[in-house]
Every structure is written in C-alpha cells, then in structure tokens.
Write a structure and sequence with these properties.
alpha+beta, Immunoglobulin-like, five-stranded mixed sheet, elongated, Ig_E-set, transmembrane
Length: 193
C-alpha cells in the first residue's frame, strides 16, 4: 500500500510529465499552420507579383480556400486560387497597382480548411516599391561629394518561421522546479513515517 507521500510524489511527477509534454508540443503539432509564403511577410518588392504562394504544413481542402488582396487603401479583390496539397497559389496578375514613387502596401487575407477540418485564417503583408527612375545618362555617374557611389537594396525581413520564439524554454525550468519540490517533499515526509 502506498503512503500519502508516495501518492503525492507520483502526482507531482505525473503533472511534471504532462507539463513537459505540453511544453514541447508546438502549435504546428496541434493544428495546421502557414509555414512559408512567397513573397515573405514584410517583403519589399520592386514590382507587383503575378502570384502569391502560401505553403501550409498539411494539405488544405481546395473547396474551402478563399483569399482576397487589398492594395493601398483600395477595396479587397477576391483572388482565383489553385490548391495543390499544402500549397495555395493566388493569381494576382490582374490586380491593379497604383503608380508612383512611394511604397504601396499589399495585404493578402486568406482562409483555408486543413484536411483534418480545422480552419486557418490569416493575413500576409508586404509592399511594392517601384524601381527608382533610371539615372540621367548626361550626368556623371560619380557622386558630387567625391565619395563612393551608394546603392540601396531593399531587403525582406526574416521569414516568420525564423522569428518564431521557442515558447517552450520556460517550461523546462518549471518542470525542474516541480521535480525538485516533489523530491524535497518526499524526503521530508519520509522521515515522518
């Protein structure tokens, strides 16, 4: 027959095990999620894309896939989609982009249903910045200040997957703390029996 301290130790060890398992499970393990996109979130493009590709971690159902895009302050435009397994390609070739020299924000909103029946909604934001005007060929290519010529490249920020924090890291000290408490209580109660 087990003593109360043995029951308590077993209970704390069980809770620590459950906490550790829950901590190591990522959201992608539980449900479908967007893995990557092209263009990436936050990207600065030189021209409007003809397509936008969304790649999920599990296949999605073509019948339930929907997407729309808003360009600048414009109204959302419903997009035609092609779904192949876990990849959704949105046709944006007909989307009108305002002209000008400033960066124009694009927002893609999507809703798909994974093969296991879970809906996935989200949005992808990026911008289209037209290429700078061609340099005047009648002027010298050297800068007037005598310094080195500079070029500015617009680079996309890291993929959202690269920015994911490891939210499980704080569960490890918690599990160790619970295990330490269980062992301490076990030793304290062992001397009383």
């Amino acid at each position: 027959m087990r003593t109360p301290s043995q029951w308590f130790t077993a209970m704390v060890a069980g809770l620590a095990s459950v906490a550790l398992l829950a901590a190591t499970a990522s959201p992608a393990d539980a449900h479908s999620a967007l893995e990557s996109s092209s263009p990436t979130a936050g990207a600065q493009l030189r021209s409007a894309p003809d397509t936008i590709e969304l790649r999920f971690n599990e296949p999605v159902l073509a019948d339930y896939a929907r997407a729309s895009v808003s360009v600048g302050e414009g109204a959302p435009t419903t997009l035609s989609l092609e779904v192949t397994g876990a990849v959704v390609v949105a046709d944006t070739a007909e989307v009108r982009t305002p002209t000008g020299e400033r960066s124009i924000p694009w927002t893609l909103r999507y809703r798909v249903v994974s093969a296991d029946g879970h809906p996935i909604t989200g949005e992808l934001r990026f911008a289209v910045a037209p290429a700078p005007p061609a340099p005047d060929t009648t002027r010298s290519a050297a800068p007037e200040d005598g310094g080195a010529a500079r070029t500015e490249d617009i680079q996309a920020p890291p993929e959202p997957d690269q920015l994911k924090s490891t939210s499980w890291w704080w569960w490890t000290p918690l599990a160790l703390l619970l295990a330490g408490v269980a062992l301490t209580l076990r030793r304290l109660t062992r001397g009383r029996t």
